[in-house]
Structures are given as C-alpha cells and as structure tokens.
Amino acid sequence: MEVTLALGLVTFCLLLLMGLMLSGLNSMKASRDEVAAVSCLEQISDAIRSGIPTGTSTYQGGGPYGALTWTIGGAPVTYDLTNLSAGGYPTLTEADQIYAARVEITPPPDGRSPGRAMISVAWPRKSATWNSGTSSWENAQGSTGMWVYFLPGQ
What we know:
single chain; alpha+beta; 4-stranded antiparallel beta sheet; 1 helix
C-alpha cells in the first residue's frame, strides 16, 4: 500500500513538473516574440527618423526600408509590411517572415515641424490581419506598437 501511494505521489509530482515546464517554455517563446517585435519597431522607427531626401520635399526611409516614402506637407501614407524577420528587417526567405507591421506616417506640415508615425507589429504574420475600423490587429498571438515623432533631414 505504501508503494502504491508513493508511486502515485511521484507520478503526480512528475505530471506537475511537466506542466510547469511546458508553461515555462510557452512564457519563454512569448518573451522572445515580444523582443523580436520590439526589434522590428526599432528598425522601422530608425529608418523613418533617418529619412533620406529624394527631392525638395520628398523623403524615403533609411536602410532596408526605402519603400517607406512621404512628402513634407503631403497626405498621410500607410504601409503594410508582411515580410519581417526576428532581426527586424525585411526578408525574402519565406521561413523567416514571422512578423507583420502596419506603418501610418503623417508627414510634417513644413520643414521645421515634426511629423509622426504610428508603428504596430504583430505575429505570426500569416494569421495577423489589421482591422482599420478598430486600428488593431486581429487573429494575432501578440502585438506591440509605438508612436514616433521625427524631423525631416535630422
């Protein structure tokens, strides 16, 4: 009888330990996803802040984000990026495309005033969809976002 009770207790403890380990692994994955999403936010915000002039009043994002363009005094522009890697950069490799981003840039009204951009990143990109009505992600396991204020040419 004592052996049966001891085996039952050991089995219960092992099952509890396995459950805690699974929970811990899920927490670690969620933490890694959040860190990678913040890396995406940093890369995109740096690209906007370091905008490169392409004309008298037009700018494009720096580095690999050259597709992000805006015009001083122009209308707001929106970009959906669906090919971001854990390093925060666009990638052509399908397996590395884990994150999606929504970038809404409101250009500065003139060369002396700041512009602003709303950047939001979600994962996994295959299921995450942006709902324009609620300005939020749907079907995403997680998301994070930030506002960026920037001055042209600085």
